Fold these 2 entries.
Entry 1:
Amino acid sequence: MTEDAVIGSLPALEMRGITKRYPGVVANDHIDLDVRRGEIHALLGENGAGKTTLMNVLYGLARPDEGTILLDGQEIRIAGPSDAIARGISMVHQHFMVVPVLSVAENVILGAETMSGPVFVDRRKAAARVVALAQRFGFDLDPEARVGSLSVGQQQRVEILKALYRDARILVLDEPTAVLTPQETGEIFTLLRRLAADGRSIVFISHKLYEVLEVADRITVIRRGRVIGERRPGETTEEELAELMVGRAVELTADRGVSRVGETVLRVEGLRVADDRRHEVVPGADLEIKAGEILGIAGVAGNGQDELVQALIGLRRSLGGKVTLAGRDVTGFSPRRMNEAGVGYVPGDRHKFGLILSFPVYDNLILTSYYRPPFARGPLRNDAAILESAATQIERFDIRTPSAQVTTSTLSGGNQQKVVVAREFDRELKLLVLDQPTRGLDVGSIEFIHRQIIAKRDAGTAVLLVSAELDEVLEMSDRIAVMYRGRIVAQLDGRTADKAEVGLLMATGGRDTATITATPAATIEETRA
Ligand code: ATP
């Protein structure tokens, strides 16, 4: 065996018997994980299984109660993130840590400056290194570009470049594809394979089983803090992985059944909306949703979907147009008035609009109803009713938390999302507006939430579903509206729509419809040229 082959077969990283306890939960229960050189190792597990905790232990953000970490066979103690980085361990976060006003190269260098004297940074040398690294790994990035002007996928590459600049040999990516388009996902996978071929090790956390099967060399599944199994992609299936994760068989595709459509509930006419920079990103949207119908909006992120939804719900002022709810003009209503008018809302950014993380779980469950009976008795809070309702929702929506009293920030990402969903779904609604309702959720929770959405529809609620997951839009929607550059460019029947066709409409806005051959022209109703 060559020296390289020997090193290749040795684990670059070993985590042995890692145990981490928090009040009321064992987040990691004697976890063993080994990652080889040049390997893409996927970490799978349901929401709250302990994946992030294990990676926080590796990155020095959480101190384990038991267990050891070995790097290239040597036992190490990681004092904190800077110590981890110094040892070649880097983390690419979901919420990027980039400075929008700085250039790509400046962002990469920031915090790891090359010193050419006691105080001066040799920027030229550093920038040249950034360019060389970007070229070597085929990053499609202009080092001079301002990071704020880059797409989400490009900003993520800046984060990866930052890690490489710091000589990361072990890279942890926590749900890197949750915010990416399918094309960007493909690009990031190509990049990860190049990094692995260069001898680096990658730990990849994802809830998307088909992605894990596509990109990983090995998969470790954890459930409730314990390692449940290890598989290679060739010897397993999505179904088996789902069952390992959740502990029961999971339906991976939703059965939307037949919708019984009633009267028009939501009518949007000529709605014009600007973004934070006052650019009119929605120059006039027209939509209609009937009772008992799910309208899905398909579109590449950043095509005005967020602004449209925020204007609809009263979180953003519209520049013009009209919104009617069950015949009543609700244009310009505040979020609270919309809520009282019978509108439920699951926001895309749960931290900004959905939750107050420093509040206990029970308070977040009544965030939009605390001032109403039974939760308020005159000016007083009815704590007994609040806690009783919280206990029911935690049970019904399977929110994994030691109790309703814990601070919401301590819940895993997926369980925070379930808190928002429980609050918004658990009452009678005329309209339910869902923005990325299953982002970050495990397959079991997605199955559950999809069933809840269908049940709401069947109870006569009109549902607006915005999702970056094209498969979700295709599976769930009775009708699909494709949004491109702020306009609804096409509306299709959800049952007959073809994935390639919708993808093409999303990417081109329909300018290229001549190449769409799969569907008869009659099913594409062009609402705007
Ligand atoms: P998800 O897929 O939802 O992100 P996860 O597998 O990453 O889930 P973790 O975030 O590791 O899950 O959470 C594991 C458990 O540890 C959860 O029960 C969570 O509530 C608990 N936990 C994590 N961090 C803390 C903390 N700082 N304080 C208290 N409990 C915590």
Note: Residues 22, 25, 27, 45, 47-53, 400, 410-415 surround adenosine-5'-triphosphate (CB under 6 Å).
Entry 2:
Amino acid sequence: MTPILIWQSAESISTEALAIVVFEKDAGQEVPGDDLFRRFDALTEGLLGELYRAGECTGKMLDAVLLHRPRGLAARRLLLVGGGKREKFNSAELRKAAGAVLRCLKGRGVHEFAFLPAGRLPLARQIAAAVEGLLAADFEPDTYKTDKKDDKRIDRVSIVAGSSPEAASDKVDAALERAVTVTQAQNFARELINEPANHLTPSELVARAQKTAVDCGLDFDVLDAERMQALKMGALLGVAQGSAEPPALIVLRYRPAAVPSSNTHLGLVGKAVTFDSGGISIKPAEGMEKMKYDMAGGATMIAVMRALAALKPSIRVSAFIPTVENMPGSRAQRPGDIQTTMSGKTVEVINTDAEGRLILADALTYARKQGCSHLIDAATLTGAIVVALGHTNVGVFSNDQAFLDQVLASAKECGEKMWPMPLDDEYKDQLKSIIADLPNTGSRWGGAITAAMFLKEFADTTPWVHLDIAGTAWLEEAKPYMPKGPSGVAVRTLIDVAMDM
Ligand code: BES
Ligand code: MN
Ligand code: ZN
């Protein structure tokens, strides 16, 4: 399903359902006072007002009221979705409202509907937010179900663009197209993340990345264990050695067609542990099945590159995705083992379950040696970030304030919640080993920060941002606008960052 624009008055659209946003009424008022409400209340001969007075429709965020055969409209049904307080209704709210509309109607067996965006944003931004919300909501995590309910499928969505002169502009078309590309990339990441570890091994991830590269015209390279050995990537190889599945370092490259005006070269590094059993420091059984999503950072970067191949930013962007399976095989590395990283720094492996930072260490070093001027990594790195920020915010760490600000600004723009975390030198006191340069774990406290401090050693002087997505890459609960499962968080933000750079 790809949403299309229509330029028709909402009341004349014959559709299975027309969805509009309604807001909360102001204090002391019986009904909302906005133009949209007045227009639809008049069209339906006072139906909306009646519902508000009866308390059946409140306009509270994502409250939904579905009416059949509404008078005054060509639509078969009218869905009123709550937008909350009108002053607070921004693009993030619009995205959610559009998503909630899709999931509500899909669940009721509707196959086709029209959505009328609302709010005070410029039309192009309204359309983009609506498209993003609709497409992200349409994702289903039921890949391996054999009795898929085919009757619960949305075939067509029309977004009502109105008839103002700006509605038929190139700007609006471009916004729609970009939103489709971005959200399809987000859903592509979610498909990969949702795959179980027996289907998505490191080799299979390589195959999927290669197919992506061929399909969309990106340069592709892959380092196998032999090439890693030649480059002395001891930390990456150390994690891989407990598994029968060979490791890989996937490289995807995008180059702008015209000679770029700057030497900016963005490096995207994504953790792709296709299964994290913990290794010899094995994890408890409860919830271990979730560790198939420990490749979410890598999937994010492949998805971002796929979108960038279409959106064509004016800078160079390369992705580096170290992929391994962390297993406790007889060849597995042991606690106490020392690994020499590509950078030359030695690491004492205190806990084999702190494997993400080990594979990222070598990938960051490789990215720097490949000439990246800026680095962003995304990783399901620590349980500690879940303790700190819950399932709401991505934890963001950086060695460069300006770059950090830029990433946070994009996150805000894209409606992905991210929160800055500290990296004071004091935390480095926790990273002391008597035998090697660094241990791979710190103390009990501030675990997300010490993990980031470890990575910082390998980002060195390159401006770098680290996203810890352990708490946000997987939705534990379904939302009205999103099913439970992989979220695809950070895809939208990172595309925006690359386009802005
Ligand atoms: N992949 C995990 C982190 C994780 C936890 C991701 C929960 C998603 C949800 C990571 O490799 C890990 O095991 N981290 C350890 C580090 C510890 C041993 C220092 C952790 O957070 O417990
Ligand atoms: Mn682990
Ligand atoms: Zn892990």
Note: The mean pLDDT is 96.
